[in-house]
Design brief:
InterPro entries: AAA+_ATPase, ABC_AA/LPS_Transport, ABC_transporter-like_ATP-bd, ABC_transporter-like_CS, BCA_ABC_TP_C, P-loop_NTPase. Belongs to the ABC transporter superfamily. This is ABC transporter ATP-binding protein. There is one protein chain. This protein is α/β, with parallel strands linked by helices and 250 residues long. It has nine helices and ten strands. The chain starts with a strand and ends with a helix. The structure holds adenosine-5'-diphosphate. The site of adenosine-5'-diphosphate has 11 residues, from β2 and α1.
């Protein structure tokens, strides 16, 4: 589904990505681990289009997307959770979901020519979908709360929900477990599993919570110093001496 081929990235004289190649199969959940500064976020930035590689290329669903803008990648189904705007604090949880729908009737070029009835129907469909998503992420009870007031874990669920409002095929999840309590963590894991098992989503996730990586991810890729150290199943990666050394040097 995705292949990154020999990516390099320089920030001035500093090389953050060093000939990094990964490939991600359709309907996999790939875990991206590595010590701080390994280049995980930089790799996400390159895949999502926030940064351009100094050299190398990125192929998504058979198309070279290296020169596409982030929104063009998004339109092809490559979604980074925070590529969807961070929650609008003053809007409700439900409205936050509705904001993400790819075809907002009010924003459509042709909307001036659409009858109010068509516009209202589209809005109703978006609202219905948002309600279904809310039910799935189990946040219906706080649908009308301002998103700024919900907990960190609920925000992570909302992020996942907003992904579902798009036509996502590959989702880049940035530390879905960070700052989340154990109960919500299990819930987030279950939702990721469901999206993967039942709806065919493909995920790459950066995560420091090794239990989550072990439970969800196959394969696991460990990065260090801007490149891939090793790729394999969790146990193989965890016990690799190079990986242990990379973490020790953190
Ligand atoms: P990780 O996500 O694995 O912790 P990062 O991708 O954030 O690692 O960072 C990799 C290296 O690149 C780090 O040394 C970091 O300081 C550097 N880096 C990342 N972004 C920039 C930037 N915009 N300018 C300069 N250096 C950067």
């Amino acid at each position: 589904m995705l292949s990154c081929e020999k990516l390099t990235k320089f920030f001035g004289p500093f090389q953050a990505m060093n000939d990094c190649s990964i490939s991600v199969g359709a309907n996999s959940i790939t875990g991206l681990i590595g010590p701080n500064g390994a280049g995980k976020t930089t790799l996400f930035n390159l895949i999502a289009g926030a940064h351009r590689p100094t050299s190398g290329k990125i192929v998504f669903l058979g198309e070279d997307i290296s020169d596409l803008a982030p929104n063009q990648r998004f339109a092809r189904g490559l979604v980074r959770t925070f590529q969807i705007p961070h929650e609008f604090h003053h809007l409700t949880v439900l409205e936050n979901l509705m904001m993400v729908a790819p075809h907002q009737p009010g924003e459509r070029f042709l909307s001036n020519w659409l009858s109010p009835m068509t516009t209202r129907r589209a809005e109703r469909q978006t609202r219905d979908k948002a309600r279904d998503v809310l039910e799935f992420i189990e946040l219906t009870h706080i649908a009308s709360q301002p998103a700024g007031l919900i907990s960190g874990g609920q925000k992570k669920l909302l992020e996942l929900g907003r992904t579902m409002m798009t036509d996502a095929k590959l989702v880049l999840l940035d530390e879905p477990a960070a700052g989340v309590n154990r109960t919500l963590l299990r819930k987030i894991e279950q939702k990721i599993e469901y999206l993967h098992d039942k709806l065919g989503y493909t995920f790459i996730l950066i995560e420091h919570d090794m239990e989550m990586i072990e439970r969800l991810c196959q394969p696991v890729i460990c990065m260090a110093e801007g490149k891939v150290l090793i790729e394999g199943d969790f146990r193989t990666v965890r016990s690799d001496p190079q990986v242990l050394e990379a973490y020790l040097g953190e």
